[in-house]
Amino acid sequence: MLASVLSVVGVAGPASAGVGLPPVVGRVPTAEKVVFISIDDGWYHDPAVARTLVEKRVPVSLFLLPGATAYDTGYFTGMVDDGRATVENHTVNHPDLTTLDAAGKDAEVCGAGEQLAAVFGRTPKLLRPPYGAVNDDVRLAAKACGVKALVTWTHDFTTWGETPPPVPRLAAGDIVLLHFTPTLAADLKRALDAAKAAGLKPAPLMPHLKAAGLV
User: Fold this and answer.
1) In this structure, what CATH number is given to the domain that contains residue 160?
2) Is 105 contained in some domain?
3) 43 contacts 63 by C-beta, under 8 angstroms
4) Which pLDDT tens digit goes with each residue over 62-101?
5) How far apart are CA 198 and CA 172, in angstroms?
6) Residue 150: helix, strand or coil by DSSP?
7) CA dihedral defined by 94, 136, 203, 161, rounded to 10 degrees?
8) Around Cβ 19, how many Cβ atoms within 10 Å?
9) 171-187 burial by CB neighbour count: b if 16+ within 10 A, else e?
10) Range with lowest mean pLDDT among 78-92, 102-116, 139-153
11) Domain-embedded: residue 109
12) Does the model's pTM come out above 0.85?
């Protein structure tokens, strides 16, 4: 529920009271006809998904768990090197960060950033907190690990049950959430089709966060 609340207001309202902390962003305020595609975790490696992202040059933010990349790193480096994918932070073990002490938060966020940087040659600047669970302590820990913004989502297109979720009407600035699951190829197609139907194009997230003055 937290993530859906954040996505309604875009940049988190109550959490913004933490002056100097990285913002929590559920959608990007922009007048451009763009939408942002993001994919979480990384456990299921479907070659068809990689081909779609690379061949169509879809800008995408991959919020990856280091363990999910370790056994087939080339699957992700191929997307990063040949497409328009960027690798971002999703913690080491996917915990609810609000339940951890300071040392635990540091181990999860900084630890994931360091592991991903060692593999991909770039330290992630964005964090997707697992389950969208955020408070000011999480934001403080993220800042200490070099995170510039915590990114939740506006719409989840992941098929979690037997049938896909209803397709929403996308709007400019929406952040689409997907997961590396067996249904990702179909889920990604629904998201791209929904973007096209709304007259929107996938765009890279970080430049638009900068343009909106959020990072």
Assistant:
1) 3.20.20.370
2) yes
3) no
4) 999 999 999 899 999 999 998 799 999 999 999 999 999 9
5) 9
6) strand
7) 40
8) 5
9) ebbbbbbbbbbebbeeb
10) 78-92
11) yes
12) yes
